[in-house]
Prior knowledge:
Layout: H1 15-34, H2 43-69, H3 79-131, E1 136-138, E2 146-149, E3 155-158, E4 161-163
Antiparallel strand pairs: 1-4, 2-3
Helix pairs in contact: 1-2
Amino acid sequence: MKAAPTVAAPIELAPELAAVVNDAVEEMETLIQRGRLQNDPLRFPIAAEQVFLRAFHQVALDLVLRITSQRVAPVVVPDQEWRRIAVEMSRAGATSLDRMTRRMGLRNGLFVLAALLIALGAGACGGWWWRGAVPVVVGTRAGADRCEDRTDGSRLCWIPVYERLPSR
């Protein structure tokens, strides 16, 4: 069988790609020889694969050359168009900023209200716990003022004294 032609690669564009393609083509030729497929119709798909690899390498190089050789045309935008774009962007920004700050204000207000309710609830629960047991009236029945008539005709009253009993 004839020797497979090697792919020539430009030095500046991917020389390793040409080496990979050449190595793959040589490996296919070696497999055809090793498998004794010189007269077998199975060699035709392998040869087609070799042709495809060479063509793909050439297409890839042409594409890279075309992309690197293109120049971008400068885009000229008139000053009036820049001003119109700036006005529209500032108007859109102001509208979205107004809407966003309104939403954030409402959200922050709800957060503060929730924090105040939580703090109030925690204070009430903490005060209830810290207060301890219900106070006990010392001396008389609960809720009744203690009064005493004096010899000079006056009356002396005092309010009940509450004390916290020691915990057991």
